[in-house]
Amino acid sequence: MSWLESIQYHGRQLGHRTLDRHLRLGVTGLSGAGKTAFISSLVHQLTVGDQTAHLPFFSVLQQGRYLGGRLAQNQPLAIPRFPYEQNLRYLSAEPAQWPPSTTGWSQLNLSLRYRPQGAIRSRLQQHSELQLEIIDYPGEWLLDLPLLQQDYRQWSTFCWQLFQQPHRQASSVAFKALLQQCDLQSLSEVQLQELTESYRSLLLQYSQQSGCYLQQPGRLLIPGELAGAPMLQLFPLLPEQLETDSPLLRRMTEHYQSYCDYVIKPFYRQHFSRLDRQVVLVDCLAALNAGYSAVQELQQALGLIMQSFRYGPASLLSRLFQPQISKVLFAASKADHVTPDQHKALTLLLQQLLQQPIKQSVYASAATEAMAIAAVRASQAGFVLQQGQRQPCISGRDLATGEPVTLYPGEVPAQIPPAGLYQQHQFQFPALLPTTQAAALPLPHVRMDHVLEFLLGDKLR
Ligand code: GDP
Q1: Ligand 1: centre distance to CA 407 (Å)
Q2: Three-class DSSP labels, the chain
Q3: pLDDT tens digits, the chain, 461 residues: what are they?
Q4: How many Å lie between the centroid of ligand 1 and the Cα of residue 243?
Q5: How far is the CA of 5 from the centre of ligand 1 (A)?
Q6: Which of 98, 210, 279, 346, when mutated, tests ligand 1's pocket best, judged by the most ligand atoms within 8 Å of its CB?
Q7: Which residue's CA is the nearest one to ligand 1's atom 9?
Q8: Segments of the chain assigned to CATH 3.40.50
Q9: Which residues sit with their C-beta closer than 6 Å to ligand 1?
């Protein structure tokens, strides 16, 4: 290599290095919101589905500058790997299935290659690379943040107010009875464990019950690497048990404090504060199906989740950590369960659930967007003629029976419906199986190109 070639080579290397970019994208949502399907589709669209007609709003692709994506060679060794390949196998099987939901924290790294815009950069090198780290974690863990602003007594009171709600009360009876029987002054380790297990079962039961979103503490339900840790022996005592000092109250207060110090704070410090961008998936349609209390609770849970993204100067988060999330996408998932003319209403409903048009958010220092999407479109939209009128409809395969169905799922309310409406009307949005087959890849979607543009567009310039 001549000295000139050598300089050019090193210049190129330097160019590659300095223009290499890293982006850590967090994907979250409450259990069942669609994280697994979303990440599988996102990775698929970036590696296989990168055809202009398939992703019309992804500008780097439309401008002919996208050179392709692949799974990075340097996958993290100490963190569970997001099972992309297995998931794709489910989605492209014959007949296609939904992949099993992930639990806990997992990650997958991609390398995205593109030609930069702008002549100076293009002369310096042939291409640039964006290292995209996709991190999947349960939205339930974000529900823990408010615990930092409460003490154990306040948290317990909050829990029991929640458990008194009509859709929750019946399930909490057994745990309540166990608490009432226990001797606060002398509780054995075995009894403590029994109560913990009973509370854990209650949380588990709630999490499988439609319309219950607010499970705390998040790690008791999804412990991740903390399974069995003593500080997870944490449950809310009854309001009357909080009035007098007792060894059990002291023990719970201690565990609560440890949970805040050794679980919540490290999660925000080590993981959350390293994220650059965030997707929050919300299944609004399932909440509508489950009724009034469910929608109210979803709104409450989203309010708590939003606290993690409001870090104006006075916020708790900025005082404790230095979050650097610059963009947050709130996505109403499974939009393919309604006809396309309802997507606008679904987006408006999501915005209302987030309690404000998020673009005008005065708290957020991050750019935010809300949209209705389907990571993997499981329906075909069309029209049927009814009494001479064209009526929109969707068709697909019913999730429970696998049978083909064609239906009009109904209108999505653009605003949170008042309690009275549920007495006259029961929402019945369907659930469908994916219709894709290996031959039909790339995976069909709704607005994943908008998603990619919002999350990555500016990083691929
Ligand atoms: P997670 O618990 O957040 O990881 O949720 P999943 O991604 O496992 O999704 C839960 C279920 O929601 C899936 O098994 C599907 O039935 C459904 N689902 C998720 N994404 C979509 C989508 O884009 N379209 C449709 N029709 N259903 C979806």
Answers
A1: 20
A2: CCHHHHHHHHHHHHHHHHHCEEEEEEEEECCCCCHHHHHHHHHHHHHCCCCCCCCCCCHHHHCCCEEEEEECCCCCCCCCECCHHHHHHHHCCCCCCCCCCCCCCEEEEEEEEECCCCHHHHHHCCCEEEEEEEEECCHHHHHHHHHHHCCHHHHHHHHHHHHCCCCCCHHHHHHHHHHHHCCCCCCCHHHHHHHHHHHHHHHHHHHHCCCCCCCCCHHHHCCHHHCCCHHHCCCCCCHHHHCCCCHHHHHHHHHHHHHHHHHHHHHHHHHHHHCCEEEEEECHHHHHHHCHHHHHHHHHHHHHHHHHHCCCCCCHHHHHCCCCCCEEEEEECCHHHCCHHHHHHHHHHHHHHCCCCHHHCCCCCCEEEEEECECCCCCEEEEEEECCEEEEEEEEEECCCCCEEEECCCCCCCCCCCHHHHHHCCCCCCCEECCCCHHHCCCCCECHHHHHHHHHHHHHC
A3: 343 444 343 344 444 444 558 999 999 999 999 999 999 999 999 999 888 999 999 999 999 999 999 999 989 998 999 999 999 999 999 899 999 998 889 999 999 999 998 745 556 667 899 999 999 999 999 999 999 999 999 999 999 999 999 889 999 999 999 999 999 999 899 999 999 999 999 999 999 998 899 999 989 888 877 888 888 999 999 999 999 999 999 999 999 999 999 999 999 988 898 999 999 999 999 999 999 999 999 999 999 998 888 766 666 677 777 778 889 999 999 999 999 999 999 999 999 999 864 544 445 568 889 999 999 999 999 999 988 999 999 999 999 999 999 999 999 999 999 999 999 999 999 999 998 665 568 999 999 999 999 999 999 99
A4: 44
A5: 52
A6: 98
A7: 34
A8: 3-137+271-378+438-459
A9: 29, 31-37, 98, 101-102, 333-334, 336-337, 374-376, 378, 399, 431-432
Mutate to test the pocket of ligand 1, among 41, 43, 90, 101 (most ligand atoms within 8 A of CB): 101
Mutate to test the pocket of ligand 1, among 333, 346, 379 (most ligand atoms within 8 A of CB): 333
Whose alpha carbon is nearest atom 6 of ligand 1?
34
Task: Say what the ipTM of the complex is.
Answer: 1.00
Please state the pTM of the whole predicted model. 0.91
CA of 449 to the centre of ligand 1 (A): 18
Tell the residue nearest (CA) to atom 12 of ligand 1: 34
Classify domain 3-137+271-378+438-459 at the CATH class level. Answer: alpha beta
Q: Whose CA is nearest to atom 14 of ligand 1?
A: 98
Going from the Cα of 283 to the center of ligand 1, the distance in angstroms, rounded, reads: 9
C-alpha 293 to ligand 1 mean position (Å):
22
